[in-house]
Amino acid sequence: MIRKSLVPNLKNRRLKKKKTVALRPNFDLKSTDNLGGGFRRLVFTDVQIEPNSFLEITINSGNRKVVSGGWSIANFQKAFAIESYPRQINQWVISVFNDTSVTRSITPYLITKA
After folding, report:
1. Helix (H/G/I), strand (E/B), else coil: 6
2. Contact 61, 91 (CB under 8 A)
3. Which of these, 107, 110, 72, lies nearest to 92 by C-alpha position?
4. What's the sign of the alpha-carbon dihedral 40, 26, 63, 110?
5. Does residue 4 sit in helix, strand or coil?
6. What stretches of 1-114 adopt beta strand conformation (E)?
């Protein structure tokens, strides 16, 4: 059972159209960490999500296989993960809803294997 207070009330709200962003390791990578055993953590540059809007982030890992994906968001306020899944062997998709009245930064992450 979902507690009603945790679900965003979208009635009578002006929502912005969903924005889509594609990130690539050759251009949008902030840092990498070698985790051993052929695994790496890729940290991508921050992406802005506008107030009361949806954002879909497609993250490509180049020639590496995606094991998992994740994200962190600035300002400790409500945000909702809509989807987080592997679209292809080297691509992860994250969809987020920003349930606040301020623009926030999202930092996307991938765990990959050679």
Report:
1. helix
2. yes
3. 110
4. positive
5. helix
6. 16-23, 29-36, 39-44, 47-49, 53-60, 65-73, 79-88, 91-98, 104-113
CB count within 10 Å of CB 37 equals 8
Which amino acid is located at 7 in the chain?
A: V
Which residue shows structure tokens 């992860």?
Answer: 92
Q: What is the pLDDT of residues 28-82, one digit of tens each?
A: 999 999 999 999 999 999 999 999 999 999 999 999 999 999 999 998 889 999 9
Structure tokens at 21: 């962003």
Q: Name the nearest CA neighbour of 59 among 32, 81, 83, 86.
A: 86
Q: Which residue shows structure tokens 């251009």? A: 27
How confident is the model over 15-35, as pLDDT tens digits? 667 889 999 998 999 999 999
